[in-house]
Write a structure and sequence with these properties.
This protein is mostly helical. About 80% of the residues lie in helices and about 0% in strands. The termini are far apart.
Length: about 150
């Protein structure tokens, strides 16, 4: 195996290990972090169609540096949701000392969490805005349109 192949293999292993650590971190701290709790509650309030929309939007707006963080965070939410449904358990049974992040990695994780929160907030806000637009459109019908005369 050449040096370049070994470097590539190490990078892939490091990336997989990093995403596993992100998943473990999210599932471990979700019940301790108000920011993650709020995001989880917003995410769990989404319908399956809205979750699909979130994944679709995330695919287009999240840059490649953050894309490796999106999946383990959402997988952590799925895991936590399943635990709540089946066991009602609080916490993660893995060792919390297994994940260690540098400052740059923590910043990347926090940024993707903020991005996910913005997208979910917009998805949840959309039906409310649509209802408001419909109400205002039905109230503000142009007088010429009511009579059938085109302006």
């Amino acid at each position: 195996m050449s040096y370049e192949e070994k470097q590539t293999q190490c990078t892939e292993i490091d990336k997989r290990e990093f995403t596993l650590q992100v998943f473990q971190c999210v599932t471990y701290i979700i019940h301790k972090s108000p920011v993650l709790q709020e995001l989880f509650l917003k995410w769990s309030a989404l319908s399956s169609r809205e979750k699909f929309l979130l994944n679709y939007i995330a695919f287009y707006i999240i840059d490649s540096a953050q894309s490796d963080l999106y999946a383990p965070i959402i997988q952590g939410f799925h895991y936590w949701n399943n635990i709540q449904d089946t066991e009602g358990a609080c916490g993660f049974d893995g060792n919390p000392l297994e994940f260690k992040f540098g400052l740059d990695e923590e910043k990347r994780i926090f940024q993707i969490i903020v991005d996910i929160d913005h997208v979910i907030s917009n998805i949840l806000l959309r039906p409310i805005l649509c209802k408001e637009i419909q109400k205002s459109c039905s109230k503000n019908v142009h007088p010429l349109m009511e009579t059938g005369i085109k302006g």
